[in-house]
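User: Round two. Same drill as before: sequence, then structure, for each protein.

Assistant: Same drill it is. First protein:
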Amino acid sequence: MVNVILPFLYACALKAGQVGDQETIYGVYCKHPKTPENSAITSTVGNLFPRFDKRTRLIDSARLLQGLLHINQQTCYNKNCEQCLLITPSCVNAPP
């Protein structure tokens, strides 16, 4: 739902100029609960917050998970740390 349906509905509302629908869809997106974590999320959160024991509590919404997935796909997955806006020393020193 968060990856496909809501963005599709938002794009349709945007194209049709339906500002009220855009706001409603965006509100649903922002309030959508956290979806189950996967290895990409766990790894990215571990790299970004290495010293925070309860780091998974920081990610409490689907919107934040989507952001982490984007960061992972753009940088972490390919070990492209120098391009990451959220670089941490643990990322740079992470084993390949």
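Second protein:
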Amino acid sequence: MPPAPHVYVGHEAIGRFLEASTAWRRGDRSLALDPLRCNHAPAFAVRMSGPHGWEPAGVLVLEMSSLGITGITRFLGRIAVSGDGR
């Protein structure tokens, strides 16, 4: 699955991305991030609550440097994650 066609670089851009990512929330819906690794990079499996429980909603992969998080790649949709998180 290709990543979403967006690039977020720097603290301000990442902050705007995270703020916009929660704009879909209505009522009792929630977002959960489960830590994992993707090609040895820190990442999160994203789950959204819905009427039938928690549903997969993609993966966020973090780009890191000595300054901290410098970028995020977001893969949308249902993503298969192996048991060892790779």
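Residues 8-76 form one domain.

User: Perfect.
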